[in-house]
Amino acid sequence: MVTRIFRQYCWTLKTAGATDDVHDITAIMQDIAPRKGFKVFSAMLTVNVGDASATDHSETYFNMLKNIAEAVHHQTPAATGEFTDIRVDGVILSQQSVFHPNEDVRGYRWEWYDKPIVYDANDRMNLELTFKNKDAATGEAIFRLCLDVEIA
């Protein structure tokens, strides 16, 4: 039997002032689709930071991954004139948000209705959430993810 559902997740990252916080969340959907495959037709993401964090141009990063625990991170070249070349398979999407005064909420939507992203029974959907709080005080970033999925 095939079941089509809409699933929502919500995470809040609380971060000390002027620090970064990174969290890896593994095996999304495994609680309701263990040993089953699923297809992702669309994903909607809303990210909210407080006014103080937005005023200081805080940033968030969201990565949706397939079978990898974390996305590749920025590396600085060893010397002037050199560059880094880093490659990784399994990044479904990556979204950076930079907030500004009076802009403390961002919304995104991705659709794959013509060709859904398929996770078989052995695949894992992992997420990476990052909050770069540039405000001097403690801040929060709220990530809300809604998935349109079909469970095999």
Question: Can you characterise this structure?
Answer:
By secondary structure, the chain is mainly beta. The chain has a single domain (3-72, 84-151), classed as Sandwich (Jelly Rolls), CATH 2.60.120.380. The chain is built from 1 helix and 9 strands, in the order βββαββββββ. The protein has one helix spanning 51-55; strands at 3-15, 19-28, 38-49, 59-66, 91-98, 105-111, 117-119, 125-133, 139-151. The strands form 2 sheets. Strands 1, 3, 6, 7 and 9 form a 5-stranded antiparallel beta sheet that branches. The chain is globular, with a radius of gyration of 17 Å. It starts with a strand and ends with a strand. The mean pLDDT is 91.
The total count of strands amounts to 9
Query: Please, how many domains?
Result: 1
Question: Which class best fits the helix and strand makeup?
Answer: mainly beta
Question: What is the architecture at the second tier of CATH?
Answer: Sandwich
SS strand fraction: over 45%
Query: N- to C-terminal separation?
Result: 7 Å
| CATH topology call | Jelly Rolls
CA radius of gyration is: 17 Å
Give the low-confidence spans: none
SSE series? EEEHEEEEEE
Instruction: Give the CATH level 1 class.
Output: Mainly Beta
- Sheet having the most strands: 5 strands, antiparallel
Separate helix tally:
1
